[in-house]
Amino acid sequence: MLTIQHVYKTFNQGTVNEKKVISNLNLHLAPGDFATIIGGNGAGKSTMLNLIAGVFPCDNVAGSSILLDGVNVTRQPEYKRAQLLGRVFQDPMMGTAADMEIQENLAMAYRRGKRRSLRWGITKQEKRIFHEKLKTLGLGLETCMTMKVGLLSGGQRQALTLLMATLKQPKLLLLDEHTAALDPKTAQNILSLTDEIVTRESLTALMVTHNMRDAIRYGNRLIMMNEGKIILDISGEDKKRLSVEDLLEKFGSASGSELVNDRMLLN
Fold first, then answer.
1. What does the pLDDT look like over 123-167, one tens digit per residue?
2. How far apart are CA 247 and CA 233, in angstroms?
3. HEC states along 178-201?
4. What is the model's pTM?
5. Rounded to an integer, what distance in angstroms lies between the CA atom of residue 76 and that of residue 78?
6. CA angle 235-239-241, nearest 5°?
7. Domain edges within the chain
8. Burial per residue of 249-266, b for 16 or more beta-carbon CB atoms within 10 angstroms, e otherwise
9. Which long-range contacts (CB under 8 A, 24 or more apart) does 71-80 make?
């Protein structure tokens, strides 16, 4: 479902502020893979997601490519890739339009990739679909579909964003620390909901997290990055047997240094 080959990313290339963030990145995700991505600050985790989404262009290096479901999107603009991707950001405010109703936000997501017209805004059939989808969140939002999204809590907005991102079953779901801005209890609820949706819809997903326990608990693969490269890729029974201590030890062995990151250690 996703193939990344020999991808590089350098910011401020050719200047005194030049910084190489991604270096010869290679990754393959099979359909249905749910991979958690972990690493220290500046490891290149979010940059990798932005390269996949087309927010940043890759460095123009021979042989580098990004393929989504067999389609070469390496030089495609962000808006074209959006038809293939679902994305949930760290900030709950980024995935929704605050001044629009819950059902209007869902309607925008439902029509992604379709031609726009002057027909009636939301049909009765669409309202029924949205009502059933909202029920699966277990938050009671199906009873207030005309409420403005700006009146929802951060957790409710993030749950709605997750539903919008998966409404059209994207080829790839990108989750960029999507629980980092939430309180611990709400974060766990959103993670459980994420796992449920990804499993139920058989989605392929990449989830960036700083929480080592969450990285171990969720998904079928664990990928660790350091200095713009993948240094660990653990799956199957090996992943199930992992502990936080194992993860720290493996990082030291693979990178030759200790994982010193307050945010990860506190999590």
1. 899 999 999 999 999 999 999 999 999 999 999 999 999 999 999
2. 11
3. CCCCCCHHHHHHHHHHHHHHHHHC
4. 0.90
5. 7
6. 150
7. 2-84+171-266, 98-169
8. ebbeeebeeebebeebee
9. 78/53, 78/54, 80/54
Residue whose tokens read 């994207």 = 170
Contact by Cβ (8 Å): 206, 49: yes
Within 13 Å and on the Cβ side, how many CA atoms surround 106? Answer: 26
Q: Which residues of 6-17 are buried (b: 16+ CB within 10 A; e: fewer)?
A: ebbbbeeeeeee
Identify whether the C-beta of residue 139 lies closer than 8 Å to the C-beta of residue 156.
Answer: yes
Domain 2-84+171-266 has CATH 3.40.50.300: yes
Q: What are the tens digits of pLDDT across the range 221-242?
A: 999 999 999 999 999 889 989 9
Tokens of 246: 């194992």
Q: Looking at the chain, how many residues does it have? A: 267
Amino acid residing at 181: A
Smallest CA-to-CA distance from 246 within 208, 223, 212 is with 212
